Amino acid sequence: MRRFLVVIEKANNNYSAYSPDLPGCVATGATREEVEKNMHEAVKMHIAGLLEDKVPIPESHSFAEYVAV
What we know:
Layout: E1 7-10, E2 15-18, E3 26-29, H1 32-52
Antiparallel strand pairs: 1-2, 2-3
């Protein structure tokens, strides 16, 4: 099992998500829960496509950190 960082952002009327380690893998949703579900499916489909195309699955190098000021 691999783990990939997913960044979720609040837009004006919905949410969007992407993974810095999987370029082009994005999702949207009306709620945070919906975008999380959609992104989970998008990552699975993205990985399946890479495997089908015999392209190596990238290593996860990204991480997130909150900074308190």
